[in-house]
UniProtKB/TrEMBL annotation, chain A:
Family: Belongs to the ABC transporter superfamily.
Protein species of origin: Ancylobacter defluvii
Domain ABC transporter, residue spans: 10-248
Key word ATP-binding present: yes
PANTHER family: ALIPHATIC SULFONATES IMPORT ATP-BINDING PROTEIN SSUB (PTHR42788:SF13), TAURINE IMPORT ATP-BINDING PROTEIN-RELATED (PTHR42788)
SUPFAM superfamilies (UniProt xref): P-loop containing nucleoside triphosphate hydrolases
Record-linked Gene3D superfamilies: P-loop containing nucleotide triphosphate hydrolases (3.40.50.300)
Name this protein carries in UniProt: Nitrate ABC transporter ATP-binding protein
GO MF entry, a single one: ATP hydrolysis activity
Keywords noted in UniProt: ATP-binding, Nucleotide-binding, Transport
From TrEMBL, chain B:
Keywords, comma-separated and alphabetical: Cell membrane, Membrane, Transmembrane, Transmembrane helix, Transport
Transmembrane segments: 12-34, 64-86, 98-120, 126-148, 178-200, 220-243
InterPro entries: MetI-like, MetI-like_sf
Protein name, as recorded: ABC transporter permease
Native organism: Ancylobacter defluvii
GO biological process: transmembrane transport
């Protein structure tokens, strides 16, 4: 295979991270090792507080590891890396900006868009509109975030994470606060975006069905300090639909993951 | 009641309350035969206001402009200091304890010192108004900055934003409602400061007018001065509140955006 010959996009090698010092010191993540190929959709599941968000910050270079090393595109990560989009559980849309202006925020910060934004405002405006339309928010660009429902806010949040066409998308429980119907609707939207653009994605979630629906590979983490205790490839054909989630294969994988996580609680 | 009637009733409420209070005061003075030197009847105060309005207006304007200069200085200074304290942990730990200590000093104690340094006149009043009103501005602006969601900060940093960009795109807009909320408090405090300075020692302003009137046992004029200060305070408060609504509509969410 050619893919294995080229270096993976993201590599974590025996990465540990401790917060605080002295007696306050808590080990959040221990010996995490994982490799993520370009274009892969990875899901990370694990009990709450096991260091999933910490893992996100390590991969994006927001915090340096206490030991071990993180490599992206073969280079050791020492500061925030370029080409990243992030979305969190609470949408953190800026309430003084319209939805469209929120989505366009990364363009004001990330090069080369920052440089071009003023001259090519109209083109970028269209781009934001198209992205919003692709998640069903075509008419909501002028609305303020508080005028949107929770599901719509999260869709805008995902748009903001994608507008600057990042190579790596980090999703930290983005659908965690939504009701089941909205969540499942967003799975479909997320998958469609990914199938179209194939950005490398790391999705943190506590919903096993969500993980199996969306991911190529599911990593299961142990209780704190988090370690990778299981890696499960999901080879169900795409596009997956809600029908898929009732098929025996799908249910089996969910069960298998559930059992491994249950061991963590036992 | 229809919505319109309810709105009108709500607009009328403060005036009604005021009218009831004044009427009760008037009645109490008449029934209890309170001597005018202790507490003049409101009708007497209004009589004085009408009779001596040119005098009152002159002294009021003196107070108003010293207060406004002090207030504007407090906004500028308070905003800068608040931004510095909110944005930098070093400035925070260096300055915050000192600010609190300074704020604990009764401002009446510094007026005589200011007079020794600056003599009497407008300057001590301006400085007292400034000193007394800038603290809430600093605290509020700093709080607005310091409470940026950590996720928002992470998001901006992951995009490669500089601290300056985080400050201008997230921090400052976020601090604006805090700033405007503090202005309403600070504006009234500024009046307290300038009138304080005028009453402790001065030769100008409404505070001085009240002081000299009370020295002549002219309590009706003293009370007229009080009313004038209250009116100016409410006017400036209302101006700040209006500006707040204009500038930070988003902070009121659905409440005001229609
Ligand atoms: N900034 C921090 N300072 C100290 N401890 C932290 C910090 N962030 C997270 N932790 C601790 O590290 C552990 C892992 O946190 P986190 O990565 O947020 O877990 P998860 O996202 O899996 O719920 C938790 O026990 C948490 O209390
Ligand atoms: Mg988390």
């Amino acid at each position: 295979m050619i893919a294995s010959a080229s270096p993976p996009l993201v590599e974590l090698n025996q990465v540990s991270l401790a917060y605080g010092e002295g007696r306050e010191r808590t080990l959040a993540l221990a010996d995490a090792t994982m490799t993520i190929a370009k274009g892969e959709f990875v899901a990370v599941v694990g009990p709450s507080g096991c260091g999933k968000s910490t893992l996100m910050k390590l991969v994006t270079g927001l915090i340096p590891p206490s030991s071990g090393e993180v490599r992206v595109r073969g280079e050791r990560v020492t500061r925030p890396i370029k080409g990243v989009g992030m979305a969190f559980q609470n949408a953190t849309l800026l309430p003084w900006r319209t939805t469209r202006d929120n989505v366009m925020l990364p363009l004001e910060v990330v090069e080369p868009h920052k440089r071009r934004l003023r001259a090519e405002r109209a083109a970028y405006f269209d781009k934001a509109e198209r992205l919003l339309a692709s998640v069903g928010l075509g008419e909501f660009g002028d609305k303020y975030p508080w005028q949107l429902s929770g599901g719509m806010q999260q869709r805008s949040n995902v748009c903001r994470a994608l507008i600057h066409e990042p190579e790596i998308l980090m999703l930290d429980e983005p659908f965690g606060a939504l009701d089941a119907f909205t969540r499942e609707e967003l799975w479909g939207i997320m998958q469609a975006l990914w199938l179209e653009r194939r950005f490398t994605t790391v999705l943190v979630t506590h919903d096993l069905r969500e993980a199996v629906y969306l991911a190529d590979t599911v990593y299961v983490m142990s209780r704190r300090p988090g370690r990778m205790v299981k890696i499960r490839k999901v080879e169900l054909p795409r596009p997956r639909t809600l029908e898929t989630t009732f098929q025996a294969e799908f249910v089996d994988i969910v069960h298998e993951l559930r059992e491994r996580i249950q061991m963590e609680h036992g | 009641m229809t919505a319109r009637q309810e709105r009108l009733a709500r607009l009328a409420m403060p005036w009604l309350t005021l009218a009831v209070l004044l009427a009760a005061w008037e009645l109490a003075c008449v029934l209890l035969e309170v001597p005018e030197i202790v507490a003049p009847r409101p009708s007497r105060v209004f009589e004085v206001i009408v009779q001596r309005w040119d005098l009152l207006l002159r002294f009021c304007l003196e107070t108003l402009w010293t207060t406004m200069i002090g207030f504007v200085l407090a906004i500028g200074f308070g905003l800068l200091l608040g931004l510095a304290i909110g944005a930098s942990p070093f400035v925070y730990s260096g300055l915050y304890p000192l600010l609190i200590a300074f704020n604990a000093i009764p401002k009446v104690a510094i007026v005589p010192i200011l007079m020794i340094w600056l003599g009497i006149g407008a300057l001590p009043a301006i400085i007292t108004a400034f000193v007394i009103s800038f603290f809430p501005i600093v605290v509020n602006v700093a709080t607005g900055l310091a409470t940026i969601e950590p996720e928002m900060r992470d998001l901006m940093r992951s995009l490669g934003a500089s601290n300056y960009e985080i400050l201008t795109k997230v921090g400052i807009p976020r601090a604006m409602p805090y700033l405007f909320a503090s202005l309403k408090v600070a504006a009234t405090l500024a009046f307290v400061g300038s009138v304080l300075s005028e009453t402790v020692g001065g030769n100008r302003g409404i505070g001085f007018l009240m002081l000299s009137a009370s020295a002549r046992n002219d309590s009706a004029t003293t009370f007229a001065g009080l009313f004038a200060i209250a009116i100016m305070g409410v006017a400036v408060y209302a101006a700040c509140a209006l500006m707040e609504r204009r500038m930070t509509r988003w902070a009121f969410r659905g409440e005001l955006v229609r």
